[in-house]
Structure prediction request, 329 residues.
Amino acid sequence: GEPAKSRIAAALNSGIAEARRYAFDLLEKLSPAGSLDPLLAALSSDHADLRLGVVERLAASNDARVIAALSKAMESDHEDLRLRAAELLAQRKDEHAIPVLAAFLRSENDGNRARAVEALQAFPVPATIAAFAARIEELSPLEAAGAAAAAKPDEKATTAQNASLGQAAELCESLGYTHSTDALEPLAARFADDTEAIRDQAFDAAIRIATRRPKDSRRPDAAGGGWGSGGEAPGNHFIEEEDRFDPALMMRFLPSAARSRHALTRAKAAESLRWGDDGANDVLVGLFTDRDVAVRTAAVTAYSGRVQKRNAPVGPLDEVLRGGARELM
Prediction:
């Protein structure tokens, strides 16, 4: 009866593994066929082996109540159970998992943090993109951009700060692997970041999203260098150069990069504007007079390519020739 069930349920917390398993088997026998009650009771066990074993059984079930059971598991006091339940719900495309996974982006446990990133990356809905963007902003606030150079270094804070900035750069990379166009806006915002690694990862991630690729691979360039690191555009060795990038998507972030106060980012933008749509012409011409010679040179070179390949107006190049600047000639 019920009193016996209560005593058996208490044995799920036994310090003896065999006793826990025996108690669970008894609960299943005493419950109606197909009941989730024994599984739900075991989720409250103090022992990870039983909790996680049960949650895996829930994941394999087609019972309509599994979603509710996993949702309940995400409320557990046990970190391992919350994370695994959230991973399983994310695999079922249930957005209730996103806040729990987002919380693990702040975990001090590297393994748990990596699992949360992977689960969110594979579930690229707007709420996921927002979770990544919010965490990046926490790690490297844009409102503080520009102040770092003027501030006196605090040696005690340096190690922790570098770790935070490294995490922010990694999350920018993860946004690229969502392949979600919703990620282009938060990535473009990072072009104002003071940290070069963050800007570079944000730029390469945006390029990755704008790159046309085979549909059967989520990370086709995982084994080698991606675009911008000397490698081929990821996963596109068989795509003609002119068709490698989506011109409209390129123009959703390249103008922001061209406005960056950081010359290296502007130069990368100039090089990549060669592949933008017609709106790229005006952006490139605006960079002809950039204060940095490398940016000016990259802009003229890219525009020349557009004249040859995309029928861009030749007039702006005539102006360059008349100006006679040696580095642009």
About this structure: The chain has a mean pLDDT of 82. The two ends are 92 Å apart (CA to CA).
